[in-house]
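Researcher: Batch entry, complex prediction.
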Amino acid sequence: MTKRQKIISVILLALVYAAVFVMEQVIPAQAMLFTVLKKGAIYALVAVSMNLLNGFTGLFSLGQAGFMLIGAYVYGIFTIPTEMRTSVYQYFDGGVIQFTVPVLLAIVLAGVAAAIAAALIGFPALRLKSDYLAIATLGFAEILRAIFQWDKLGPVTNGSNLLRKFPTFNDFNITNADGDVVIYLSTLVPFLIVGVCIFLIVLLINSSYGRVFRAIRDDERAAEAMGVNLFAHKEISFVVSSFFAGIGGALLAMYQMTIQASAFKSAMTYEILLIVVIGGIGSVTGSCIGSFLFIAASEWWLRGLDSGTFLGITAPTIFRSGFRKVVFAVIIMVIVLFYRKGLMGDKEFSVARIAGRFRRLFRRRAPAEKGATK
Amino acid sequence: MLKITDLKVNYGGIEAVKGISFDVPEGKIVTLIGANGAGKSTILKSISGIVKPSSGRIEFLGTDITSKDAAFIVGKGVTLVPEGRKIFPDLTVLENLRIGAYMRRDDLTEDLDWVYGLFPRLKERAWQAGGTLSGGEQQMLAVARALMSRPKLIMMDEPSLGLAPLIVRGIFDIMREINKRGVTILLVEQNANMALQAADFAYVMETGRITMSGTGNELLNNPAVKAAYLGT
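Model: Structure tokens for the complex:
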């Protein structure tokens, strides 16, 4: 990237954030747009973290929902206000933990806890290859889900009951003395957190570690022959990916306002995998774009398919509960068959490429310039 | 420099190497020739630490490197150019070279200049993805990548595989050039003719054993070798 391209990218990003801020002040907070933006941002972070592992290191892991679960619980457990604990942990005498930590610290702790769990299971699991690693991590996530619902751990996890009353995104809004919101920040703050996290992942990918990750993905044996410590690098990638999945879990808890272990099913991992595939395996910007598209489609645009009216057509016999999933399945099949590389392939979104394309459109006599990017 | 004593390796359920001993003296080009399945590649893999031998001893510059990690062995100065090149297709040429220097923490400018001098083609294509190079260029990249670790001993597994005769000649010329710079070379080849011409010393392998040895010229003129490997 040249200096000019960097400046343009920074300006574009700043514009996106400014737009989010302005929209939030102008548009009513209940609008579907904000659901999409918040959930989309969270899924973008988790998708990028999965892409770091699956797309850049070539480790096919399906444990994302498990690490999100750890993150969500750690966040909830450490942030429920002490005076609320008796009502939340009503079956467990208010629980054993009777202190809280600041929200941002709790989010970081959520990541750290997920990272520690990943480091531990990485020792046996990362010695496995491809499909076996996927099965092992999937199994691990399922086991976690059962453990967090275990009654004996109730004083900490509240068993199979909900965790609630912890600070949510709405607590980022600035209110006046009467409790009315003066400045809305409930979308901007998660956007900022996700932005910082993705930026850190991009720094890692572009570092010498990232180069080694991609070498391992391309040819493990050859990387080993060059003296690369395979296990150490796989472990780093796995731990970092899980760290950010944990943060994603904490953010998801804030978004949903309640935490329940049973919600972190393998279906959640598949949704994220789908986003990674739609966006393009090995493309960070692809994962981000894919995430917002996926969430917008599933939460908003295709809603009518489940509730009777879609695109102005009312057909309750066809458009009824569950039809959305059928349409989604078809979309997935089309993507896998015809767009195997996803929206972005393994390329990144770049202003220069788009500018180059426009220039070619408008300048008819000039032959297509090759290599407008890089 | 490299001393192998009674090496046995089980690979893929069979005993691929059945107790062999040989030496690679410093500053020389030594070659192992033999038919498919003779165990040549397995020997290189066990020297470089990718495959663990079942018994025997591998000594490099007085250090026992038997069954050590590949990283340790590369750090000692032994680098493998794997069979089939195995460059990283999605990394650029320059990134491939940087991975080659993975074990080093010092400045790479001088080494990059050196390998670009040996292979000017790679300099032209520094920003191209490795996978888009032609077969010959990929082989150059594989050799250059191995050189980036500043090896004392470079082991090449079938560098002529699938390349046009003219390109093969070029690769062998470069090999001599590298050798003149003081890098010892252990070469595994099926192209016995080229290998014996280049080698100071050669071993002939058959099904896991060394059956003959001698200087390159001796073996070139040996009637048995001629009949079995040179096709004359």
